[in-house]
């Protein structure tokens, strides 16, 4: 049984168990559900067991945990959050000469001085996918999800779900108001996006915290349209639920990527951190990641070996549309987005 299949029933259990002890010489702070067997094949072959995992539900929780003193060797932030780890002085550069598959990482995922500068490479991208419109194909006509206007459509009042995620809701709001990047956003553009989110808020049945919650909301019929990651949609399809995933609405969709940072003063063995990242980026990890959780591996060479039908089934095949990339943002702007979103959710 895959991680995707158990998303509908097992995520709460995964989140309730904060750590799984295995190899005590490497601790990984990771997303719930990421202790996937096929990703650690070479690590286990060399070290005898998987690392010790401690799980988190979102990037804010992970950063707060590390910045509050939790000792871990590696953490798995998404790209937009890497800057916070650097600014707080929590991480150190990777030695890419010890990572053979580094040369096969998509260059677009390293195109930021936050990830790579004269001091070294601070972030190793490993996975990516999309955020777009999930919808009940039985009750929602395809033409209704041809535009992000579906989220403000009074027809779906109380039947909408948005992620309880700063990055995801703001990428949606900016796209919906004609902004395709959050670099150099003006005050007027920010206000327009905030006003749009406020107009959507009365339609929202729930802000989902993880893909399992989103999938449950759709499976019960409470929600007909959601701004969703692709794994929740794949989980619903595995359950034969009538769900579609519109990744090409008129205004565009969002794309994100995540990876690993190397913590300073880590408690484990440094060489095992490299065993871990090399196992994660191994070509054999591409099908394991796709089958296990529905994401694409950042190793472009490995992804070229995956059959096209498998990519389409997981909704990670290339998209011909405007894509809003959730790249790093300055801390001040992130704080502004967080505070505004919290006010909107509270009804202000």
Short description:
The protein is α/β, with parallel strands linked by helices and 348 residues long. 36% of the residues lie in helices and 21% in strands. Helix 1 (3-16) packs across helix 7 (211-219) and helix 1 crosses helix 8.
Strand segment tally: 15
Shape: globular
CATH superfamily of the largest domain: Periplasmic binding protein-like II
CATH C-level class of the largest domain is: Alpha Beta
Our estimate of the beta-strand percent is: 15-25%
What's the domain count? 2
Describe the model.
The protein has 348 residues and is an alpha/beta fold. It has 2 domains: 3-128 and 256-313, D-Maltodextrin-Binding Protein, domain 2; 130-254 and 321-345, D-Maltodextrin-Binding Protein, domain 2 (3-Layer(aba) Sandwich). 36% of the residues lie in helices and 21% in strands. It contains 13 helices and 15 strands. The protein has helices spanning 3-16, 41-47, 59-67, 82-87, 166-176, 187-200, 211-219, 230-238, 270-281, 285-293, 300-303, 308-313, 331-345; strands spanning 19-20, 23-31, 51-56, 74-75, 91-92, 116-117, 120-121, 124-136, 160-163, 204-208, 225-229, 243-246, 253-263, 296-297, 323-325. Strands 1, 2, 3, 4, 5, 8, 9, 10, 11, 12, 13, 14 and 15 form a 13-stranded mixed β-sheet that branches. A two-stranded antiparallel ribbon has the order 6-7. Helix 1 packs across helix 7 (211-219), helix 1 (3-16) crosses helix 8 and helix 5 (166-176) packs across helix 6. The longest helix is centred in the C-terminal third of the chain and has 15 residues, at 331-345. The termini are far apart. Its main location: periplasm. It is found in: Periplasm. Pfam families: SBP_bac_8.
